[in-house]
Write a structure and sequence with these properties.
The protein is an alpha+beta fold. It is built from 54 helices and 25 strands. The strands form 8 sheets. It has a 7-stranded mixed β-sheet with strand order 5-6-20-7-16-10-11, sandwiched between helices. A 4-stranded antiparallel β-sheet has the order 1-2-3-4. Strands 17-18-19 form a 3-stranded antiparallel β-sheet. The chain starts with 11 loop residues before the first strand and ends with a strand.
């Protein structure tokens, strides 16, 4: 690959720029013919000529690599790439730390950052150096981890120029070591190390123009560790203190902080007597006074030399700048605080000459008085007492007053001090020295020449210099003394095992004027740079060797020649020492020697325009040094006479610091005066060289770690990056040299797996070999890079030259772009084809609609035309018709009038004619009638006369004929025929009449039938409608049941019942319809019955009233009989007692308690209960407690469960809380058949039981019974038959009434009430009969007992003692029978226990099957209903078979019971035959069941001590719920219950059983009112619990066990304290058991504190187990296939990281399962030992908070985790935790709410990040702080270069929006979550329902010393 291939159109390059150093530009065309066409970001274009390829501008890295944590991971490693990456991270991401290989680059932000808290320390602990974001804590952790694992000393070298933040970085490194290496002893060495910082800052730091807290000395602190790697000691070395600052400060600078702190604390007891607050006494405060004194003395005013002079080597630290950092806050760089108004200092430091030269006495935002208090506190902590502090401050005040001593110039050649100088007087007062001698030797020097000694006066300048030299020397000695005292405080008696050194030393410095201080500083940096280069080269070499690749020697800058120039013989330092030894040596002579001796060195040169300076070519830059002041600073001399005066002072500390001071070399003599004898010592340069060599030896023996501090700008602006200043420092501190060394080799390194995952797109599937990734990677690289020198294959990694990764990224981007274009092409083609098809279809549709529209419009016009024509025709026709009608109407009207007139005329004529005719008719008829009447009367008269004549003649003839016989016969014959004919006619008419009547009746009947049929038809229609409604209702119910099957199983039962009712209604309606069809003819009879309904109802009411009266009478008689029964029973008991007295027995028999039991019921309600009711009296409850089991519920209720009566389809079975009724589907014919068979079997079984009872009754009837009784029985049977008949009649009557009105609810309800009353009456009657029988039998037995043997002589019953003999004989028989009965009972109990266990197993299996059935019923989805139906069928079949099996078992058990009962009857008969039995107990009507004597079935044990001993029964004892113990057994009790109780044993016990036992012991001590005993017991309990927890604090089971028991004791103390607040849920018995004599509320508080302590221990144990699983399970676990959580882009592995070489203890893919298993184990452990549910919720709330805090803190410090795919993986992992809480029923308690921050962080990574999403993101992340949201957005990295980065403008908008949050939220706005935060612990009161009197001690505890009371 040629370099030209990279310079193509669109490539971006870096072009040098004068202002920005480097400027980014983009190529407008490919590179060709030595020209580059560029376009800058601002749109400007330019053309650059390139002579050769090597001169091409550096390429810019791809955007995917910009902002990396490690500069060496950049593909292009050069100066602009490094500078730009730092700028992006610093300005855009607010990241102040960046790795550069093994170097940590730290940029001063000039702003407080919340990244140095304890949570940050905890997050970086145990992490390798490259896993989290760069941080000073990561470097410290790397050093600490290497020391632990390699057992080698470590060192951290912090360098940089003034103001870059060296001191703060070193301080935080030491804070980290103090935190993670805390000592196990009580020495608190960590606090002392941290306390030394404010002291060293006070005496060694000062304000400069660049830094408010600049360190003016170098220091190397060794932190010593023992074999446990705890800090045991420390040691501090200091280098090159800037003593000149004591006497001189440049403008805007200050002296050391300690002086200003003293002046600000004048009221302090240590300061108030040091004369620091009287400015009028100081000469330099008043320049006018100074001038007057100088004039009076005749001196020439050389004025203001002290104010105008320049410091020799003024650059010596005068420009060291960094923001002032408070030693107490410890929260980062406290910089950039706005200036405030000047303060009026309480002690005016302007008084002192040594403090007022800089003109800047105070620092904005710093309170020197508070710092003074902090300094004094630190001094006290380090062992410097108040007296020593006072002496120290006295010496410091003396230095200030010494600077105020006025030196006068008398004649220009001799200086003097005024005798009454106020400063000298104060100096004398403070130090107790001889001021005359001091004034003398301040202005004179002693000259020794041969054997002569003489004093030589000094000039004003020499005297001033001597005074200042003395002040500097005093301060330096005091500084050394303080460091020595600190080291003594740090020291340890034992030898340290390993140490970590922290070197805080000056960086390379170059100023306009560079002097001796800059020379020493740069010399030290040359040595450190050499060591750094060698170490970097060594690491590179080790990496290549480790990976077994061939490598060539990497050339790097070797600064050994420069070092030789300085320190070899005849080098600069050697010549300087030689010149200092010369009597007349001067700076000029020394520099001339340098010109002549060092000129041959290539690193040395002479400046052109100066003869007093020289230039040294350092590794960073060429530096020009001014030789003025070199000799004096190198000599650092002070007069011996001045030292002697100080040794003689009264201040002990002054004497101590100068006690071993030897005579120094005297100051040089004035020119012209030879000096022959001088005392020598090492020069400053020699001392510094020796100490530097010692330091390098120490560093070379350790593993170094480097921190390079960079100052971003000179204006102290927060997060402002000055590229020019930054590049200067990067060149000076060696960062660029590291980059160059890395770039010279193979800087980019990939593992084979990561390389394949990244660049798989560049190969074919055929070239991939999954089992050999190295071969696959070789194929991929062979297709991309042809030059083999550009890459190397290592053992586990691939190494690339600089730029190759960018080239591969370009190929990958091109391939992805090509693939994207191909996908876009096909997708766009597909979209366009679909679009064309849609457009074509749309066009056809439009055409179809247009054509249709045109056709419809044409048809519309045609229709309108036709309609218009039709309208016209109709209109015209209408008009014609109107005209015609109008004409016709006129004509018709005219004709009508005419015709009417004519008709009226004709009518009038006709009327007149008719009237005339009528008149004529009446007249003519009248005339004719008169004529007719007259003629008729005449004719009638004529006829009458004629007829009378004829009749008389005929009468004569007839009389004659009548007298003849024949005539009579003929006459009779005709009459007979006529009579017969008439009779026949009459018969026919009668028949016809009958038929007609029949027809009429048939017609009426048919009409009636038709009306009836119509009514029936209406009813049928109503019934059919009702059936349809019911069927629809059934369908609705079925649908509703299908929907709610999973939620309410009872609905299934309701559905089945509804279906059965519907079927019954349908059947009843069908039967009713059939009955109506058949009984149509009987409708009239039914109607007649309806007429008598009222009568029947009245009769029914009368019967009801009569029944009620009978019931009341029977009840009254029952009460009377019951009283009589009790009286007779007492009489019987009296007789038995008299019998016992006659025998003279000591023991008296008590009446059996069976008399209080109710008689046996004949109703077969429950089979097992009915058959075993006789044995209830013999089954006694043992005094069983809780013992070693959790809870023993009585199983007797299970015995009474009737398996036959379980109706699987009836809702009546809901009464059982543990059973779920399962309806049988209608479609399951076999199941229905089985149920029918079961019902049939049940009925048969009832009949069989009834017959068996009758048979038993017949068997029990004695053949010798009274005949009167038999007669009464017969009469009773007849009465019962008659009663049954009446009942049947009454039942039929009720049924008829009910059938008559089947829909009348009131009648039906009345019938039900009547039946219930009837049943109650029957039951009462049976009870009365039984009681009467009992009374009769008792009286009969008593009478028979006496009369059977003695007849009427009852008085001689016991005359000769035969009654006693018979009683003894009977008792022996009874005992023998009892023994046999006991044996049989034991066998029956065993059988009963087996059946109980089997029944319990079946019940549990039933519950399990029902739960499984309910789960399957709730499953939805297609086919769910069919599956549920099939499951129901199979389950019902199985249950049915089991039911039948159980029925068989019950039958067998019943048979056995009957067998036992027969045996008992046989025994009873034997007793009866023997003559001594009690007949009353063998009767069928006996209240004891008629099966056994009560004496034989009572009691658990029979005492057989002799033949004459009666039976002894064991009474139940009532306990008081306390344990009695002896005081001497108290420790044994504590030992067994607390010390020796193992968790595995405690699991088998009742939860909290030890607590219950201990509390019951406490109750006993309260009961006996023993104050000492209760106090001793409680104290021993508390102490024992503490000892057990301390001993087993790492055992989770033990801690949880005693947490639960401690809380149980606490709850018991509250519950039984007697306080009403704790008695709300107590029973009366528990309230009676409250403590009576002692108030143990104080012990409750003690136990509560212990519970809190144990709770915190449990939380700590859980957190320790969870901590290594948090990051792998939540952040690194990748469960979603296809989403890679690995960071895109090749991160270069850190070769220096030890932790990276070790495998992770937990695989990420298994971590989530392990975490869930661990949480489940926690939950089960808590639940197993009976921990309160509320406390379990609190525990997991705390654990989940810890998981959230750990995961979120790690996420906030890992850039590789901040992309959208990882956010999706994290959210998926968190969903498992949420599901776990739901499974454990913890989600409702708010446990998952603690995960809200990490959930919102994952959602933030997945969310869109556009300007439209600002509000939604701010609302979504309400649980995250502002700094956390901004941090995540700054760390967000696109998954690929095709994804857009988060714009900085978007981040600013988010930040502005978040600033609107409330002040409370802002106050809590921190970056990292506090992992040490703990929710408040609350122990809710949880009273116990367990009765103390039921608690038993299990055998496993062996507490034989306790006695239950």
């Amino acid at each position: 690959m040629s370099i030209r291939e990279l310079f193509v159109k669109g490539a971006r390059v870096w072009v040098p720029d004068g202002e920005q150093v480097w400027r980014c530009a983009e190529l407008l065309q490919d590179y060709r013919q030595g020209k580059l066409q560029l376009q800058y970001a601002d749109g400007k274009t330019a053309e650059i000529k390139v002579a050769k390829d090597e001169d091409l501008p550096p390429l810019r890295n791809p955007d995917i690599l910009i902002g990396e944590n490690d500069l060496t991971s950049l593909s292009y490693l050069h100066e602009p790439a490094v500078l730009y990456n730092l700028q992006v991270r610093f300005c855009n991401h607010n990241a102040i730390y960046t790795y550069c290989g093994i170097v940590l680059v730290a940029i001063n932000p000039y702003e407080e950052l919340p990244i140095y808290g304890a949570d940050t320390i905890a997050t970086y602990r145990g992490q390798s150096m490259g896993d989290l974001d760069p941080h000073i804590f990561a470097v410290a952790e790397e050093a600490f981890t290497k020391m632990e694992r390699e057992n080698r000393d470590q060192s951290i070298i912090v360098s940089g120029e003034s103001g870059a933040g060296k001191t703060v970085s070193a301080k935080y490194a030491m804070r980290y070591f103090a935190s993670v290496g805390g000592s196990s002893s009580e020495t608190q060495i960590e606090k002392k190390i941290l306390a030394s910082n404010p002291i060293m800052e006070a005496i060694g730091n000062a304000k400069t123009t660049r830094n408010d807290n600049s360190s003016r000395f170098g220091k190397y602190i060794e932190l010593d560790f023992n074999k446990s790697f705890h800090i045991m000691a420390a040691h501090m070395r200091t280098y090159l203190l800037e003593k000149s600052r004591v006497v001189f400060q440049a403008p805007d600078e200050r002296n050391y902080h300690i002086f200003y702190q003293m002046c600000a604390s004048l009221e302090d007891d240590l300061i108030k007597n040091l004369k620091l607050g009287e400015p009028e006494h100081f000469l330099y405060l008043n320049p006018g006074r100074q001038q007057q004194q100088q004039v009076r003395c005749g001196a020439i005013q050389r004025g203001r030399s002290s104010r105008t002079r320049k410091k020799v080597g003024s650059g010596g630290g005068g420009s060291r700048v960094m923001g002032r950092r408070s030693s107490e806050t410890g929260v980062g760089y406290a910089l950039g605080i706005p200036r405030r108004n000047s303060l009026k200092w309480q002690g005016d430091q302007d008084t002192f000459h040594y403090l007022n030269q800089g003109g800047s006495p105070h620092i904005d935002g710093v309170d020197d008085s508070e710092d003074f208090v902090a300094t004094c506190r630190a001094l006290s902590l380090l062992g410097i007492d108040r007296d020593q502090q006072k002496q120290m401050f006295t010496i410091l005040a003396a230095i200030l007053h010494l600077g105020n001593v006025s030196i006068l110039d008398a004649n220009g050649e001799q200086a003097s001090v005024a005798p009454n100088d106020s400063a000298m007087l104060i100096l004398e007062e403070l130090l107790g020295l001889d001021r005359t001698e001091m004034a003398k030797w301040l202005c004179h020097r002693k000259i020794v020449s041969g054997r002569e000694v003489f004093n030589k006066p000094m000039t004003l300048s020499e005297a001033t210099f001597s005074r200042d030299a003395l002040a500097k020397h005093i301060y330096a000695k005091l500084f050394d003394w303080i460091v020595t005292q600190i080291n003594k405080c740090f020291s340890a008696k034992s030898k340290p095992y390993r140490f970590i050194g922290v070197l805080d030393i000056y960086g390379f410095e170059t100023f306009e004027i560079n002097s001796f201080e800059q020379f020493c500083i740069n010399y030290a940096n040359e040595k450190l740079q050499q060591q750094f280069n060698q170490h970097v080269f060594k690491l590179e070499q080790e990496e290549y060797v480790k990976e077994q690749i061939e490598w060539e020697f990497i050339s790097f800058y070797d600064n050994q020649p420069c070092i030789d120039l300085i320190e070899t013989k005849l080098g600069i330092l050697d010549l300087l020492d030689e010149e200092c030894r010369m009597p007349k040596g001067t700076d000029q002579s020394w520099v001339e020697k340098l010109y002549s001796k060092c000129g041959q060195w290539k690193h040395f040169s002479k400046p052109r325009l100066s003869n007093s300076a020289f230039i040294i070519a350092h590794f960073a830059d060429k530096v020009q040094y001014e030789s003025v002041g070199f000799l004096e600073k190198n000599r650092d001399t002070v007069s011996e006479e001045q030292i002697s005066i100080l040794r003689a002072c009264k201040v002990r500390m002054m004497q101590h610091i100068f006690v071993e001071e030897k005579s120094h070399i005297k100051v040089k003599v004035m020119p012209g005066g030879p000096s022959k004898t001088k005392e020598h010592r090492k020069s400053v340069g020699s001392q510094f060289r020796n100490s530097l060599n010692l330091l390098m030896t120490t560093l070379n023996s350790t593993t170094p770690h480097y921190v390079r501090c960079v100052k971003p700008n000179d204006d102290k602006m927060a997060f402002t990056f000055d590229s020019t200043r930054a590049i200067q420092q990067l060149r000076a501190c060696g960062v660029l040299e590291t980059v160059r060394i890395s770039a010279a080799g193979y800087p980019s390194r990939w593992t084979y797996g990561d390389f394949f995952a990244r660049y798989r797109v560049l190969t074919r599937s055929a070239d991939i070999t999954r089992n050999d990734m190295q071969a696959t990677c070789r194929k991929i690289i062979a297709n991309m890079i042809s030059d083999e020198d550009k890459f190397k294959f290592g053992r586990t990694k691939i190494f690339f030259r600089a730029g190759q990764v960018a080239y591969m990224e370009k190929l990958r981007a091109d391939r992805l772009r090509a693939c994207g274009i191909m996908i876009q092409k096909h997708v766009r083609g597909f979209l366009h084809r679909n679009r064309f098809k849609r457009m074509r279809q749309a066009a056809l549709t439009i055409q179809r609609y247009v054509r249709g529209f045109l056709a419809r419009r044409k048809v519309y016009h045609i229709r309108r035309k036709r309609a218009a024509i039709r309208l016209q025709a109709n209109m015209r026709g209408w008009m014609a018709r109107v005209r015609f009608n109008r004409c016709r109407h006129l004509i018709t009207r005219l004709q009508a009038h005419i015709r009417g007139m004519q008709a009226r005329m004709r009518y009038e004529h006709a009327r007149r004619t008719r009237a005339a005719i009528i008149i004529q008719k009446f007249v003519r008829s009248y005339l004719q009638r008169r004529k007719f009447v007259r003629i008729t009367r005449g004719l009638i008269k004529s006829q009458g006369l004629v007829r009378c004549f004829l009749a008389r003649r005929q009468l004569k003839k007839l009389k004659i004929e009548a007298k003849s016989v024949e005539h009579q016969k003929k006459l009779n014959k005709g009459l007979e025929n006529k009579i017969i004919e008439l009779q026949q006619k009459l018969t026919e008419l009668q028949q016809e009449t009958g038929k007609i009547h029949g027809y009429k009746e048939d017609i009426s009947n048919l009409k009636t039938q038709v009306s009836d049929l119509r009514s029936v038809e209406g009813k049928l229609k109503t019934s059919n409608n009702r059936i349809q409604e019911l069927e629809s209702l059934v369908k609705n119910l079925q649908a509703q049941i299908e929907l709610e099957r999973g939620e309410k199983m009872d609905v299934l039962t309701d559905k089945e019942r509804a279906e059965k009712e519907n079927r019954e209604i349908v059947e009843r309606l069908n039967e009713e319809n059939a009955r109506l069809n058949k009984e149509l003819e009987s409708v009239q009879e039914i109607a007649a019955k309806k007429e008598g309904e009222e009568l029947l109802r009245k009769k029914f009411e009368a019967e009801k009233e009569q029944i009620y009266m009978e019931y009341d009478q029977e009840k009254a008689s029952y009460q009377k009989l019951l009283k009589e029964f009790n009286r007779l029973e007492q009489k019987n008991d009296t007789l038995e007692e008299e019998l016992g007295k006659l025998r003279g027995n000591k023991h008296q028999r008590t009446a059996s308690n069976v008399s209080s039991m109710s008689g046996a019921s004949d109703a077969p309600t429950e089979l097992v209960r009915d058959d075993t009711s006789e044995f209830n009296s013999v089954v006694t409850d043992d005094d069983i407690g809780y013992g070693s089991v959790r809870s023993r519920a009585s199983d007797r209720s299970d015995l009474s469960r009737n398996l036959e009566n379980i109706d699987w389809g009836s809702p009546s079975h809901k009464s059982s809380s543990t059973d779920i009724s399962i309806p049988v589907p209608e479609k399951v014919e076999d199941v229905a058949l089985v149920l029918q068979l079961q019902n049939k079997v049940r009925e048969l079984e009832k009949e069989r039981r009834s017959l068996s009872k009758k048979l038993e009754h017949l068997e029990n009837v004695s053949p010798t019974d009274d005949p009167q009784h038999a007669q009464e029985m017969i009469r009773l049977q007849e009465l019962e038959m008659e009663n049954a008949k009446l009942k049947d009649d009454l039942g039929r009557l009720r049924n008829s009434i009910a059938e008559a009105e089947p829909h009348n609810n009131r009648v039906q309800e009345f019938m039900k009430q009547f039946e219930a009353l009837q049943d109650e009456l029957e039951r009462r009657r049976e009870e009365c009969i039984q009681l009467r029988t009992v009374l009769a039998n008792r009286s009969h037995d008593l009478a028979a007992l006496t009369s059977a043997s003695y007849g009427k002589d009852v008085d001689i019953v016991n005359e000769d003692g035969e009654l006693a003999i018979a009683y003894q004989t009977q008792k022996q028989i009874n005992r023998q029978l009892v023994e046999e009965l006991q044996a049989e009972k034991a066998r029956s109990r065993e059988v009963e226990g087996e059946y109980k266990s089997e029944l319990e197993r079946l019940r549990k299996d039933n519950d399990r099957q029902q739960k499984l059935l309910a789960v399957n019923l709730t499953k939805g989805g297609p086919g769910g209903g069919l599956q549920a139906e099939a499951l129901l069928q199979s389950e019902i079949m199985r249950l049915t078979s089991e039911n039948l099996n159980l029925q068989g078992q019950v039958d067998s058990l019943t048979e056995q019971l009957k067998k036992y009962k027969r045996s008992l009857r046989a025994y009873a008969r034997k007793l009866k035959e023997a003559g001594g039995g009690r007949r009353g107990t063998t009767q069928a009507g006996s209240p004891f069941g008629g099966d056994h004597p009560p004496d034989l079935l009572e009691g658990n044990a029979v005492g057989v001590e002799g033949d004459t001993m009666p039976i002894i029964r064991k009474k139940d004892r009532e306990y008081m719920g306390m344990f009695e113990y002896d005081r001497k057994d108290e420790m044994q009790l504590i030992r067994i219950l607390i010390y020796e109780l193992k968790p595995r044993v405690a699991v088998t016990l009742l939860p909290g059983l030890p607590a219950y036992i201990l509390f019951m012991c406490i109750r006993h001590t309260d009961h006996i009112n023993d104050d000492e005993k209760v106090r001793s017991l409680l104290n021993n309990i508390v102490n024992a619990i503490k000892r057990v927890i301390k001993k087993r604090h790492e055992d989770l089971d033990s801690t949880v066990l005693w947490l639960s028991n401690t809380l149980r004791i606490l709850h018991n103390l509250k519950q039984y304290s007697g306080d009403k607040a704790f008695q709300a849920e107590n029973t009366l018995k528990q309230n009676e058991q409250s403590l009576k004599n002692f108030d143990l509320s104080e012990y409750r508080q003690v136990l509560s504190d212990i519970a809190v302590w144990i709770y915190n221990g449990v939380i700590k144990l859980m957190e320790e187990k969870v901590q290594p699983l948090i990051v792998p399970s939540v952040l690194e676990h990748e469960a979603i296939a296809g989403l890679s959580g690995n960071k895109p882009g090749g991160m270069r592995g850190r070769a220096g990281s030890v932790a990276r070489e070790l495998e992770s203890p937990v695989e990420p893919q298994k971590a989530l399962d392990l975490l869930l298993k661990e949480l489940t184990h926690f939950y089960r452990t808590l639940a197993m030992f009976g921990t309160d549910p509320e406390l379990i919720t609190q525990v997991f709330r705390q654990i989940f908070y810890y998981i959230c805090a750990g995961a979120l803190n790690n996420l906030l410090l890992r850039k590789d985790m901040c992309h959208w795919s990882k956010g999706m993986q994290i959210r998926y992992n968190l969903s498992h935790l949420e599901q776990w809480t739901r499974d454990m029923k913890l989600h409702e308690a708010g446990v998952t709410d603690t995960l809200a921050p990490i959930i919102q962080a994952a959602q933030l990574l997945q969310a869109r990040k556009t300007d439209d999403d600002v509000h939604s993101i701010c609302d979504m992340c309400d649980k995250l702080s502002v700094s956390q949201i901004i941090k995540i957005l700054n760390l967000y990295t696109p998954a690929d270069e095709f994804e857009e980065r988060v714009p900085i403008t978007f981040i600013h908008k988010i930040q502005a929006k978040l600033q609107q949050r409330s002040e409370g939220e802002q106050a809590q706005a921190t970056l990292l979550m506090n992992t040490k935060f703990a929710f408040p612990v609350r122990f809710p009161f949880n009273p116990s329902s367990i009765r103390l009197e039921d608690i038993e001690i299990p055998d496993a505890l062996s507490l034989i010393m306790l006695k239950k009371v």
